[in-house]
Amino acid sequence: MRLFAAAITLLLLTLPAAAQITSKGPITQQSVTPEVIAKRLEDSAERTRKLSAKGAARTAIIDFAWPQDEAEYGALGKYILVFVSAVSQEADELPLKRVYVENDNGDIALEKIASIRRDVPRTSPVFAMLGPWREDAFYLAPAGAMMRKGSVMVDFAVRRSGFRLYELPGTPPAFVKADRNPLPAFDAKPDPKGLKAMIEREYTGFALPESIKADAR
Q1: 3-class DSSP state for residue 122?
Q2: Residues 78-118: pLDDT tens digits?
Q3: pLDDT digit string (tens) for 157-187?
Q4: Which of 40, 47, 68, 80 has the most other CB atoms within 10 Å of its CB?
Q5: What is the model's pTM?
Q6: Minimum mean pLDDT among 24-28, 78-82, 122-126, 208-212: which range?
Q7: Could you tell me the CATH superfamily of domain 9-215?
């Protein structure tokens, strides 16, 4: 069961005004499916339409999930699961160069564990307002970094860096908040079976990375 999911952040970079708009949705216990992400992107496209009939240069949305209990928290090596979907008018802006946490201590790069390129359907408002090119990707983020004041940021492959996705801190479950040292060890790696189970539970319907399927056997 999904215990904590990140509030969703939608950021729109409008072409004429170069304005960035950030909004957050509610925490949910429901699994996030491809249909849910598609709807969030469509909502983003409709918001963009109200700002500019010409659309936006690019956008990205984020969702993240905390472990459901202490056992899973330990199995994941004190990482949490982050999902980012990015859309652009230009093919060369994807895949994303990096996703990272920016705080007073500097930048902490998130580890990408899976990525897939998608074609946006021509009939979708996303195609008209945000672009035909899309990338969905899973990342691992240190729990401690997501609990501190800061921002989750994105650098596109070209043209746009420092794209703000989410204002931290997130809202961890009590057992993570109680951890006095919520940063993963230097050599910590999530248990493949635990990671596979979490992706299947929290992001039902998304294709599992081949590397994770192989490691989890």
Answers
A1: coil
A2: 999 999 999 999 999 999 999 999 999 899 999 999 999 99
A3: 999 999 999 999 998 999 999 999 999 999 9
A4: 80
A5: 0.88
A6: 24-28
A7: Immunoglobulins (2.60.40.10)
